[in-house]
Amino acid sequence: MINRYNYRGVVWIDITKPTEDEIRSVMEEFSLSRDIAHELISPTIKSRVELYKQYIYVILHFPAFKHSHTDSEVRQEIDFVIGKNFLITTRYDTIDSVDKFAKVVEVNTILDKGFGENITGEIFFGIVNEIYMSLFNELEYIDNWLSKIEKNIFEGKEKEMVRALSEVSRELLNFRKITVFHREILDSLDSFGHRMFGEYFSHHIKSVINEYSKVQNILTNNLEFVAELRETNNSILSTKENEIMKTLTIMAFVTFPLTLIAAIFSIEADSVPIIGSPNDFWYILGIMAFACLLMFAYFKHRHWL
Fold first, then answer.
1. Is a pLDDT exceeding 80 seen at residue 250?
2. Domains assigned to the chain
3. What is the average pLDDT score of the chain?
């Protein structure tokens, strides 16, 4: 599907889930190379930026989270073709932040306001900034998730939180893996954009880099927080396991003398003390009870209980 926005001689072509016919028509209208057209028809593996004579080609990948429109993929891709009088964006899934910015562009176009001299650059910067704002929101969602995990850890739900910590850690690691190359892409785009569009483009790309740096700082903080929560959770689990092992060990030590006493009095000998006398059963129980009390007193004295 193609959406077209025109403003003061500049056109933004936004293509969602492109078909071969749509890409062919765009290629012919804006004189795109066949290599670029081939790249636009389907997703690619890596983010990158390439400088051509009349335009700059940029591929950026962004994390796709569970509550986004993508269920099976962990990343979403946007391809940008940035020319002096046109901008082409291609995406292979619904991306709410791009749709939101498209509505802003539509309103500003109707009202004839909101853009300066470099309209193409401003649209590109607006899209990327809107995406980074959505990433801020995603990280805020994860931050709330971590707060719930922290609360559950100290409410005695350590075992359940082992899986929760693994899941949130996976989300953050995928986030970092997908966005780690953005800084290199943006730095290269800064150099290419300055050569093609001038100082104005370079000035705005630096603001985008600042937004990216903020996202990475929050991501790093969340990863460190997850590591601390996992260490805390493991320590509490280990402490509880040690307490259980100590209890089982004490029970084993307590039952051992009882078993020994019972075995001694069960020996078939000619003369076994107590056995055969009146109330011999209760005497043996008393001896066992005394042995238990003695063991517990010893454990208490050693501060093992």
1. no
2. 2-237 (3.30.460.20), 239-301 (1.20.58.340)
3. 82
